[in-house]
Amino acid sequence: MVYAQIINNTIINIIELHDASLLSLFQTDQNGNPYDSVIQIDLMNPQPGIGWTFDNVNWNNPNTPAPAENAIEIYTALVQNAITFGNALIVQFATQNVMAGITQAGQTQAVLAYAGPLYTYLSTGSLYVAIAEIETMIADTSSTKTALAPFITNDILYSYLNQIQGYLGLPITPNPGS
User: Fold this and answer.
1) pLDDT tens profile 7-25
2) Beta strands 2-7 and 10-16, pairing class
3) Alpha-carbon dihedral of residues 110, 116, 117, 123, nearest 10 degrees?
4) What phi and psi values does residue 51 have, to the nearest 5 degrees?
5) pTM for this predicted structure
6) What would the mean pLDDT of 40-57 be, rounded to a whole number?
7) Could you give the CA distance from residue 150 to residue 172 in angstroms, rounded to a whole number?
8) Is residue 36 a contact partner of residue 29, using CB atoms and an 8 Å limit?
């Protein structure tokens, strides 16, 4: 079985184990630092523009659907990873805004109100819907959005759009403003 050792939603190493009972030996790096996750990836294949597809697990008949428990494990891992990735983007966005002085500017509530749907999509791992929301936000030319600068700008939105696209293996949308 092939496993990926992941830190900050990035595959650091790929390991092949013939004995899954040894997996606990690979939960930390050589310095003893834990990986965020170690997941089996030999059944998952990224498909640009689609998401993920799965190879057949060693079932007796490859023309029959996977047993429910295998499908649940696979989809649970995908959803957990998407949620982890989405939450990491939320933390990154919040950190950038705190560093930019959002609290002192009194704009926290306004930014939360404007970006609320995006936060929901990211925190639930709904990354394709998050892409659509960011594209809508980029196209927004209202005074509501422009009043939120420097906390929400098209440059910031393109940065997050591109991170999600990269995570999903989609083509990156160039930022025409840069």
Assistant:
1) 766 667 777 777 778 878 8
2) antiparallel
3) 150
4) 130, -120
5) 0.63
6) 50
7) 23
8) no
Inter-CA distances, 21 with 13, 15, 17, 27, 93, Å: 18, 14, 9, 12, 39
What lies within 8 Å, CB to CB, of 131 at 6+ separation is 161, 164, 165, 170
| Closest among 118, 121, 93 to 108, alpha carbons compared | 93
Describe the crossing of helices 108-123 and 127-139 by its angle, rounded to 10 degrees: 150
Asked whether 164 and 158 are in contact (CB, 8 A), the reply is no
SS (H, E, C) 17-68: CCCHHHHHHHCECCCCCECCEEEECCCEEEECCCEEEECCCCCCCCCCCCCH
Bond into 150 cis (ω within 30): yes
Q: How far apart (Å, rounded) are the C-alpha atoms in residues 1 and 130?
A: 32
Q: Which two tokens stand for residue 161?
A: 């759009």
Question: Tokens 């190879």, residue?
Answer: 55
Reported as a single tens digit per residue, the pLDDT across 93-147 is 999 999 999 999 999 999 999 999 999 999 998 999 999 999 999 999 999 999 9
CA 34 distance to own-chain centroid: 20
Kindly state the tokens that stand for 87.
């939450």
